[in-house]
Design goal:
Blueprint (H helix, E strand, L loop, with lengths): L5 H14 L17 H4 L6 E10 L10 E8 L5 E7 L5 E9 L5 E8 L4 E10 L4 E8 L2 E10 L5 E8 L2 E11 L5 E8 L2 E12 L5 E7 L4 E9 L2 E10 L5 E9 L5 E8 L2 E12 L5 E10 L8 E12 L2
Antiparallel strand pairs: 1-2, 1-20, 2-3, 3-4, 4-5, 5-6, 6-7, 7-8, 8-9, 9-10, 10-11, 11-12, 12-13, 13-14, 14-15, 15-16, 16-17, 17-18, 18-19, 19-20
């Protein structure tokens, strides 16, 4: 069993105490069309490396002890270049290494799984003349499948063709836009299979902020409603509409001004089931370095929130 060195834990505590600060109000989250992994992961500043630790409150031998569960390394242009995953005992289980070309485009990833001793390699090639990209996936050095993506003039994917063994699958995508070039609907359909059709619908407010989106298949529809205040998202509510057209509330999540969840209500058959509360400490760049999570079990008629785990992040930055 891997043990975290006491000096490492003390340095994490010291790091958090030296760098924690109040929530920054001068930063603006990137909610869509992120340019790199940092924006997509809601991170601020030139992050170089993040170590994630989790402390759970259970009756186990690891009770109240921070355990390393993930390490992320970023390039100086904001993309992930390496990710390591660890189990509940801090033992390494999987490593992903990602490479990019001179245009900062993904070209290769190698994923090694320690538990089943397997490896997955993905490579990507680009053709700017045909406006296509080709992704090849190898499992234990044997080709598993290959997919070619076709793009329209606006950069949106319009078709993809996948080949796996003797099977070929073609999927076509169509879009409609409003007067502000915002997507209001997209349809994805597999050639020769009408039942595979999926539709996404989008609605915006007068500031072009997304306020509703839905994902619809033949059997069900999932709807997400988004509420804004002063140009920032502060609440999202999700619903499911089943085949018999009954609408069920799934979740309500509230956010702080930097799009960090601060409260999440989970429903069963539209009845409040559990509620999670999140409290944060931040570093000077605006990234959280400690997250306290507590839960109230409404189905058990709990009166108070009970701490269930603490996440901490040790973050280093490019100079």
């Amino acid at each position: 069993m891997r043990k975290i060195h006491l000096l490492t834990l003390m340095s994490i505590i010291l790091f958090n105490c030296q760098n924690k600060t109040e929530l920054r109000t001068d930063l603006q989250p990137i909610y869509s069309d992120s340019k790199n992994a940092l924006q997509g992961n809601n991170l601020y500043g030139k992050v170089k490396k993040i170590e994630y630790y989790k402390t759970t409150f259970q009756n186990t031998e690891n009770d109240d002890k921070p355990v390393l569960n993930k390490i992320e390394e970023y390039t100086d242009f904001g993309e992930l270049k390496k990710v390591e995953y660890f189990d509940n005992y801090g033992e390494l289980t999987q490593t992903n290494v990602i490479d990019y070309n001179k245009n900062q485009e993904f070209i290769k990833s190698v994923s090694i799984n320690k538990s089943n001793e397997s490896n997955i390699i993905q490579t990507s090639e680009y053709d700017t003349i045909k406006n296509t990209s080709e992704l090849s996936v190898f499992v234990n050095d044997t080709i598993d499948h290959k997919t070619t993506f076709y793009y329209g003039k606006n950069g949106y994917q319009i078709k993809r063709i996948s080949i796996k063994g003797n099977d070929t699958t073609e999927v076509n995508l169509e879009y409609t836009f409003d007067d502000n070039d915002k997507i209001i609907s997209s349809t994805q359909k597999e050639k020769g299979n009408d039942k595979s059709t999926t539709t996404n619908l989008f609605k915006y407010d007068h500031n072009n902020n997304l306020i509703e989106s839905s994902y619809k298949t033949e059997r069900m529809e999932v709807i997400s409603e988004t509420e804004w205040k002063d140009g920032r998202i502060f609440k999202q509510t999700s619903y499911t509409i089943s085949a018999h057209l009954k609408k069920h509330k799934n979740n309500i999540t509230e956010f702080d001004i930097l799009y960090n969840p601060i409260n999440s209500k989970e429903f069963e058959d539209s009845k409040l089931n559990r509620e999670l509360k999140f409290d944060y400490e931040f570093d000077k760049n605006g990234n959280w370095i400690k997250k306290n999570v507590s839960m109230k079990e409404h189905f058990n008629k709990s009166k108070e929130f009970v701490p269930i785990y603490v996440d901490t992040r040790k973050i280093s930055y490019w100079k």
